[in-house]
Amino acid sequence: MTSTLLIVQFVLAIIITITVLLQKSSSIGLGAYSGSNESLFGAKGPGNFLSKATMILGLLFVINTIYLGYIYNQNKLESAVDNVKTESLIPATPEKEKAPAAPIAPVAPVLPTEPAGK
Question: Per-residue pLDDT tens for 25-62?
Fold first, then answer.
């Protein structure tokens, strides 16, 4: 899902760049390469269509950016350690194979002795 949205982000960036460069400005922009762009967009010219297209593409770009940021933030909160199954890493030992614990022998109390010099 993330990779698809990232590809959409790149495509939107390229299309926005092209629509901005096709708009009329003091210089001719990319319109010089496509010939007369007046006939391509109708009698009124590309101004109205391209400005609306730029606005819609920009809005889609911002929404996609916010959603990608949200997804990456959610993935950042997850830890790789949380996904490790610890039960499969520790070998299980059956109860029959365990050696019985040795009984603890009672210890006789040690009585204090008198010093030898008295």
Answer: 655 555 555 555 455 555 555 568 888 899 999 999 99
Residue from 54, 74, 70 nearest 13 by CA: 54
Given a contact cutoff of 8 angstroms between Cβ atoms, the answer to whether 31 and 50 are in contact is no
9: nearest Cα among 52, 71, 51: 71
Per residue in 95-117, pLDDT (tens digit) is 655 566 667 777 777 777 777 66
Domain ranges, ordered by start, for the chain: 2-77
60 close to 12: Cβ distance less than 8 angstroms? yes
Separation between Cα atoms, residue 52 and residue 13, nearest integer Å? 16
Contacts of 47 (CB under 8 A, 6+ apart): 23, 24
